[in-house]
Amino acid sequence: MPQSRPDGLLAIYPHITSRDRQLLQLLDDHHVLTTDQIHQMFFLARRTCQIRLGELYGLGLLDRFRFARVGGGSQPWHWTLGHNGHRFQAAAHERPEPTARSSRQTVQRLSANPNLTHLVTVNEFFVRLWAYTRRHPEARLNRWWSESTTTKQFRTITADGHGLWSIAGTTVGFWLEADTGTEPLGKLVAKLDRYADLIRRVGVRYPVLFWLGSAQREEHLHRLLRGRRGDVAVATATHETSPAEAMWLPVGATGRVGLAELPTDHGQPVADNPNFDDDGVFVL
Q: Are 90 and 98 in contact (CB under 8 A)?
């Protein structure tokens, strides 16, 4: 009796490397990464990166889109999961198999999302931390949570992202608020109330990092924050800087410090704190 033909997804398994698996998981978690971001995280040569992305696109594991650039030319490719990528991730996480139509709609909705620029900016922050660890073995990005994961885990927190950053034996948690200049600064300041509530509830004290689009906007935010009282630590930097470097200006300070130098407290080992397991052990 002739053997049945293997499933199309199974047939491409021999072509999927461990690096590809990491990329598929990141796109499952964070939806979109540009060519440059993927290059920073996984490749040495840009051309090698472009070739591999083209191969994954050909296998249906990735999909892509880009827009016209103001003044001519095109923006970089934005990469997301293709239909086979969605199928692979669904199988890996025991989720229902997606249809080709649902995969196509997911890409279309993402490409038309008015918050796409903000999402790419948030991901850029974490990509730069990841890239730093490639050059500095003592550094590690232990946690990179999206807005949805952060809200799911901490319930009242709606940060753009959350991370745990370790360097030279020190682990610092942080909340990211990535600013693209579309919100009034007063609205950014108002977000601090939720972080204060979390401190009172479970004792988690992580600095709120406002990553701003310009030095002028950073200066204006500090003016608003100087008179504010509260337990929430706040530090700022601009998009032109590397978040892993000594570029963070705490409110009320005169000098900039590194991310690992900011105050942190992982809170109490209670049921409402996802930083600890059932045995009260801190989970990186």
A: yes
